[in-house]
């Protein structure tokens, strides 16, 4: 049950983060349309965090779907030497 | 005859302490020490050294900031009583003090903790002094957005002090502080527009207007709350943290929503400014609490 809640929250958070980042970029486009000076630099300041966010979300998704590592200590086979 | 002699050193001491901005550093220390207990089980000596080193590094950055901003500090009512504009300290003494304690912090962290911790703390110092104060503060309305990275270094410092490396959870803590910064400082900027205008600091409300600033505050807060939830999905935190993060984030969202909707935003903006400080401290406390009260992982 808890796992289901976490999964729903995970995808809801991913969606919310992407929508929010998109709205921030839209807002930046509006304010930069009004002021022409140094708009390339200001676009850069808006895009760098956006790219970092997308990268982090991908890494979070990969970490979330990664199957758990189960370490099993198997008994030694006859004649096997373990360090 | 003796009264002034005993009073003078106390004034100098209090000025030196005020140069480090101790109230701001107290929050930085929370975001430094809490990740140490999330990352592992640090020794008390390591925690003490990281707190001392972190205080000296951040204090040094704040002192150098006051040196670089001494011209505009005299213009703004909020900063007029600082040691340099009030004439109590010479500017050269202030920068020497700032560089001195930051250098001491670098040596101490590298020698007694590890080199990665020292390098990250020093990177935060350079970012705050050169990228934020020297470059962005007076040239871009996104000064707070990019400059927010300087304040986001402490979680990395704390994490590296325990593990001597950085992993995904550490970078999430960095992003949480990074995205917390715009709504926090824009809440202040909305109420201090005249001050920033007098000092010709291009804060977002002055350049973009109040409506667009409030719009971005709202979306940055949604982004922040979303980022606080995500680490639970890959097992970094459990249900205790998740519940507290949702409640704390919900209250912050409500506060920023009030700012966004209000025509007279002064009161809700002050509320957001104050609560966001508490929010960050409690969120990091929740991370530690989650480690000590595990109710079953996600």
Give the gist of this structure:
With 83 residues, chain A is an all-alpha fold. Chain A has two helices and no strands.
Question: What does this molecule look like?
Answer:
The complex is a heterodimer of chains A (83) and B (298). With 83 residues, chain A is mainly α. Chain A has one domain. Helix content of chain A is 72%, strand content 0%. Chain A has helices spanning 2-34, 39-65. The longest helix of chain A is centred in the first third of the chain and has 33 residues, at 2-34. Chain A is elongated, with a radius of gyration of 23 Å. With 298 residues, chain B is mainly alpha-helical. Chain B has 2 domains: 11-166, Tetracycline Repressor, domain 2; 173-298. Helix content of chain B is 80%, strand content 0%. The longest helix of chain B has 27 residues, at 266-292. The N and C termini of chain B lie far apart (68 Å). The A-B interface holds A 2-3, 6-7, 9-10, 12-14, 16-17, 19-21, 23-24, 27, 30-31, 35, 38, 41-42, 45-46, 48-49, 52-53, 56-57, 59-60, 63-64, 66 and B 140-142, 145-146, 168, 171-172, 175, 178, 207-209, 212, 215-216, 219-220, 222-223, 225-227, 229-235, 239, 242, 296, 298.
């Amino acid at each position: 049950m808890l796992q289901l809640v976490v999964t729903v929250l995970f995808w809801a958070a991913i969606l919310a983060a992407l929508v929010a980042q998109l709205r921030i970029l839209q807002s930046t486009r509006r304010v930069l349309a009004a002021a022409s000076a140094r708009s390339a630099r200001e676009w850069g300041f808006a895009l760098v965090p956006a790219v970092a966010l997308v990268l982090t979300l991908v890494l979070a998704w990969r970490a979330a779907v990664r199957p758990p590592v189960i370490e099993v200590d198997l008994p030694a086979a006859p004649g096997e030497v373990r360090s | 005859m003796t009264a002034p002699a005993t009073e003078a050193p106390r004034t100098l001491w209090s000025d030196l302490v005020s140069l480090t901005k101790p109230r701001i550093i107290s929050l930085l220390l929370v975001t430094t020490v809490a990740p140490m207990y999330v990352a592992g089980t640090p020794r008390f000596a390591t925690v003490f050294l990281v707190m001392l080193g972190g205080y000296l590094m951040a204090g040094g950055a704040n002192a150098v900031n006051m040196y670089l901003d001494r011209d505009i500090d005299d213009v703004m009512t909020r900063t007029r009583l600082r040691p340099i504009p009030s004439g109590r300290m010479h500017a050269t003494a202030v920068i020497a003090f700032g560089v001195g304690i930051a250098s001491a912090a670098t040596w101490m962290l590298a020698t007694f903790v590890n080199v990665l911790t020292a390098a990250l703390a020093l990177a935060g110092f350079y970012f705050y002094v050169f990228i934020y104060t020297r470059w962005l503060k007076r040239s871009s309305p996104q000064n707070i957005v990019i400059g927010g990275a300087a304040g986001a270094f402490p979680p990395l410092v704390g994490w590296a002090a325990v593990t001597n490396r950085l992993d995904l959870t550490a970078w999430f803590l960095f992003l949480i502080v990074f995205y917390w910064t715009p709504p926090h400082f824009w809440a202040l900027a909305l109420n201090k527009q005249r001050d920033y205008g007098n000092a010709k600091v291009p804060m977002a409300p002055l350049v973009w207007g109040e409506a667009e600033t409030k719009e971005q505050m709202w979306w940055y807060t949604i982004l922040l709350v979303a980022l606080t939830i995500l680490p639970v999905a890959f097992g970094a935190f459990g249900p205790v943290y998740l519940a507290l993060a949702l409640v704390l984030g919900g209250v912050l969202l409500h506060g920023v929503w009030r700012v966004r909707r209000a025509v007279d935003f002064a009161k809700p903006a002050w509320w957001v400014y104050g609560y966001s400080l508490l929010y960050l401290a409690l969120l990091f406390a929740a991370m530690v609490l989650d480690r000590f009260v595990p109710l079953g992982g996600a």
